[in-house]
Amino acid sequence: MATAPAVRPVPVVRSLLAPAAYMCGLTFAEGLLWHSDQDAGKIFAIEPACGAVVRTLDCPRVRADLTWHDGLLCQVGGRPKRLLLVHPETGEIVEERQVAPPGGRLCGVEAGPEGVWMCLRAPAVVQLRDFATMTVRREHPVEGAPSGLTHVAGIVLYSEFEAATVRAVDAATGRPRGAVRVEGRPTGLTWDGYQLWYCDFEARRVKSVRLDDVLNGTYRN
Fold first, then answer.
1. pLDDT digits over 170-204, tens only?
2. Which residues have CB under 8 Å from 133's CB, separation 6+?
3. Is the omega angle on the peptide bond into residue 101 within 30 degrees of 0, that is, cis?
4. Residue 132: is its pLDDT beyond 60?
5. CA 165, 168, 171: angle at the middle one, nearest 5?
6. How far apart are CA 112 and CA 157, in angstroms?
7. Distance of CA 39 to the CA centre of its chain
8. Which residues are CB-contacts of 55 (< 8 A; sequence separation ≥ 6)?
9. Angstrom distances, CA of residue 102 to CA of 79, 122, 123, 195
10. Coil, helix or strand for 211?
């Protein structure tokens, strides 16, 4: 019987020190990396060129991943988890969106033109939902235990904290497109148009890798 190919390591391109120690969400918008931290109860705007924190928002209900939609930050937070729509200038929660089922262990989120992509851990799936109603429009079972998610041009990428892995699946079919091992323990993921960034919970750093390395599943110099 054929065995599955080994998941190979990929090199880190950039590495920035995070401003706090319990790394959750990550997204890219307005030229900044936005990062949320559960223990700090804050969302930080980080300049990706140097790692400087240029804005800090109080958000004590942070629980998991973070995205950006229509000028607002969308933070997975609360108990049970839901989407908190946060004003990026003031930190005010302007709206909340319930995500059913409440026990689905929502962990990753990324808004895009089609709607909002989410990953849940019970069972392990990636879903495309309508942003206004949060109804599921598409769902794919996935391997492992997702911890963070992003979407790039028809590809959904998700991280696995325990396995130190980033996986890619086709957004339309759910077919695997790549899997690689990354440094540390990845949580939140985002794409800045050039690099794939992830939160390394273990190292307390925001790191980037090349998208091509993930899709090819190979180490490239």
1. 999 999 999 999 999 999 999 999 999 999 999 99
2. none
3. yes
4. yes
5. 150
6. 13
7. 18
8. 32, 44, 45, 88
9. 9, 11, 13, 33
10. helix
